[in-house]
Amino acid sequence: MTDPNPKKLRIGWFSFTCCEDSTIMLTELLNEHFFAWRMHLDFVNAKVFRKSGPLEQLDVAFVEGAISSEKQTEKLKKIRESATKLVAIGSCAVSGFPSAQRNLFDETTKAEIQPILKRFAYLPKVLRVNEIVPVDAFVSGCPMNTDQFLVLMDKLFEEFGIRKNKE
Ligand code: SF4
Predict the structure, then answer these.
(1) Among 31, 59, 147, 150, which is most buried by a count of CB atoms within 10 Å?
(2) What is the per-residue pLDDT across 109-162, written as a single tens digit (0 to 9) for each?
(3) Mutation choice for ligand 1 from 17, 18, 127, CB with most ligand atoms inside 8 A
(4) Burial of residue 43, with CB atoms counted within 10 A of its CB: 0-12 exposed, 13-18 middle, 19 or more buried
(5) DSSP of 112-134
């Protein structure tokens, strides 16, 4: 008999300094996987899909984008505390780039952008996610490689004991 209340993977999707193209890739994936995933995934925190509430306990937090301010650093630390696993999504989260381009500016250009950094309380340097918190898995690509993402999703379903129907 089918379980009417199957265990779902509780996930969060968070975007920091980036163009949010991996979010677009995720929504594209839903075109194909929505009906298979809806029984197995609970989008607990995902501003792109639902009104964002307080941060809740998550099985997996997916983080896209680089970290460029103290405020983002604090938010990322809170996300890490509330998630069993944290996954860095896309090149900006994994390596900082291309969002971290200002790290490579010459001294003159760096001096020119100081007022902007000060005005928006940006960090002196843009950071990748694992410079701030431990990361359990990485999905590379700009935007993220969707094949890698799907392989990881299957691994996560298995790891958290989510019995997935055939797609
Ligand atoms: S990795 Fe590429 S696609 Fe993803 S946020 Fe950064 S610039 Fe955008």
Answers:
(1) 59
(2) 999 999 999 999 999 999 999 999 999 999 999 999 999 999 999 999 999 999
(3) 18
(4) middle
(5) HHHHHHHHTTEEEEEE-GGGTS-
Q: Which CATH number fits domain 9-158: 3.40.250.10, 3.40.30.10, 3.10.450.120, 3.40.50.700?
A: 3.40.50.700
H, E, C per residue of 72-105:
HHHHHHHHHHHEEEEEEEHHHHHHCCCHHHHHHC
The tens digit of pLDDT for each residue in 42-71 reads 999 998 887 777 888 999 999 999 999 999
Beta bridge partners of 127: 67
Distance CA 87, CA 90 (A): 10
pLDDT of the residue at 136: 98
- Tokens 């960090």 map to which residue? 123
From the CA of 15, how far away is ligand 1's center (Å)?
10
pTM of the full structure: 0.93
Gap from CA of 163 to ligand 1 centroid (Å): 32
What are the residues whose beta carbons fall under 8 Å from the beta carbon of 46, sequence distance 6 or more? Answer: 11, 12, 13, 52
Please tell me what DSSP assigns to residue 144. Answer: T
